Amino acid sequence: MEATILRAAEGIFAEAGFGGATMQQIADSAGLPKANLHYYFPTKEALYRQVVQQIFDIWLHAADSFDDAPGPAEAIGAYIDAKMEISRRHPQGSKVWATEVMHGAPVIQDYLETTLREWTADRASVIQTWIDEGRMAPVDPYQLLYMLWATTQHYADFGHQIETLNGGRPLSEDDWDRAKATVRQIILRGIGLGPAPLPAQGQPG
Amino acid sequence: MEATILRAAEGIFAEAGFGGATMQQIADSAGLPKANLHYYFPTKEALYRQVVQQIFDIWLHAADSFDDAPGPAEAIGAYIDAKMEISRRHPQGSKVWATEVMHGAPVIQDYLETTLREWTADRASVIQTWIDEGRMAPVDPYQLLYMLWATTQHYADFGHQIETLNGGRPLSEDDWDRAKATVRQIILRGIGLGPAPLPAQGQPG
DNA sequence: CCTCTTCCTGACCATATGGTCAGATTTGAG
DNA sequence: CTCAAATCTGACCATATGGTCAGGAAGAGG
Asked: Nearest residue to C16, CA vs C1'?
């Protein structure tokens, strides 16, 4: 039951934001009378908090692919794939997270300051080690992580824009493959793990 | 007068979303009685639409740096700089735009389907030309544009998260320079316009 | 001083929303 | 079958919100 409500809530919160979503909409979407929602979740904020928490867990879980890899190319490549897959499978969750953060994280600021901060510091230091060992180009690890988040989550958060630019059609299987491959290719090559660059060339004209 | 209201509205809409923002908040922030808002903007939606329109113009304007450059490295590098600067100077505008798109662009769908679609198609074909001429690595132009948008706007939309991970302090001048440089470096190298990659290396262990 | 237009505002209204509550219904252990 | 606990629900309430409106300043032109 809670699961049904959470799923419905995720969709409504994603499409309308916290302020724009109404308990009535969520109730309708879950096929329940509104009063019943308050049996399981005392307030709108409590429901919202659970939705966000759920997403945060999935988010952190994507790091497994990062940690299990032997080197930067595999780790970052797998991480990109995992996060792209999350954007594809849980676009609403990603939107809820994005909205929450954009509004100053009123509900989950504590997560940012504890779990996320540690998570990020750990991965940044792993990346720094790879750099020190000469296994990838020297780039600011934090900025690299931001780029990974930005590029992958963009496909969820701005999915509507992308779909519109795709002629109004959702991305096909091939489109997703191409997106994944391009992101992986550009970023990996961008940190010195791809094929050689083009030969130097004068400006024509 | 309209300008004062629009500035206040942008801030409130950015922090609360369309649904979460109230006319009263906007009025207070602008230092006006609420009824006066309705003298200049008949409805909340009309006010919101103007805010979004304003942002869209700035957004498109950033393309000038793209168009005036002689080649891909200069064009894309300048575009990254311009968009990073927008993220820094107009973070609220970027957030309003992001929220609007995430909610399915209920108000500005027409822009997406006309102006933005053309804009994107034009730039994509310029990029394709550079690829055909061998002046940059062959990547899907659309995905590259998405990456540019994603990475640069991330610094505005997720500014709060970044600030939290930065120890709760806003990014300094140096932080911004480093962010800009890293994004530019990774993306340009990622499309074959940077220094050589690291020499091939066996996996240790 | 008059008057017309533009600009501004406090008070008000209809509506929608989050949340409550008393009581109905279902479940399940004994 | 009993009965208490858990689950569900229609009706209701206090509040807040977007928007209206009648009328009050404030200029500008004469």
From this structure: A22
